Amino acid sequence: MSPHIRQNIAYGALYTLDLAKSNFAVSVESIPIAIKDNICTKSMPTTCSSKMLQDFTSPFDATVVELLNKAGHTLVGKANCDEFGMGSLNIHSVHGPVLNPHSKDQRRSAGGSSGGSAAAVKSEMCLAALGTDTGGSVRLPASYCGVVGLKPSYGIISRWGVVSYADSLDCVGVLGKDVNYVERIFKTIALYDHRDPSAASPKVRKQAATECANLLARCTTASNLSGLRVGIPQEYFPSELSSAVVEPLRHTITALTERGASVVSVSLPSTPYALSAYYVIASAEASSNLARYDGIQYGLRVDPPKTADTKKTANVYAHSRTEGFGPEVQKRILLGTYALTADAFDNYFLQAQRVRSLVRADFDRVFRARNVLVADSESKDDDASAVDVLLHPSAIQTAPRLDEARAPGDLSAYVQDVLTVPASLAGLPAMSVPVQPAEDSWPVGVTVVGQWGCDDAVLQVGKIIEEIEVRRSV
Amino acid sequence: MFGHVGHRFHLLKRWKTRHIHSLRPLVPDSRWPGYGVVVGIEVHAQIKSRQKLFSNTRNAEPDDPPNTLVSPYDAAFPGTLPKLNPVCVELGVRAALALGCVIQPRSAFDRKHYFYSDLPTGYQITQHYAPFATDGVLQLTKSDIPVRITQVQLEQDTGKSMTDRRRRITSVDLNRAGAGLMEIVSEPDIRSPEEAADYVRTLQALLRSVGSSDGNMEAGSLRCDVNVSVSKLGERFGTRCEIKNLNSVRFMTIAIVHEIRRQVAVLEAGGSVLQETRGFDEEKAETYALRSKEDAPDYRYMPDPNLPPLLLGEEYVFRVKKELPPLPNVTRARLLALGLSERDVDVLMTIDADIDTEYDGTAKRGAVAYFDEVSQGRNPKTAVNWITNELLGQLTLKYPSKNPFQANKVSVAQMSELVDLVSSKMITGPAGKTILRYIINNDSSGMPAALAQELSLLAVDDGDTSLKQWCEEAIQALPAEVTAIRRGNVNVINKVLGRVMKLSRGTADAKTAKAMLENILLSK
Question: Which first-to-last residue range defines the signal peptide (chain B) (predicted)?
Answer without folding.
Answer: none
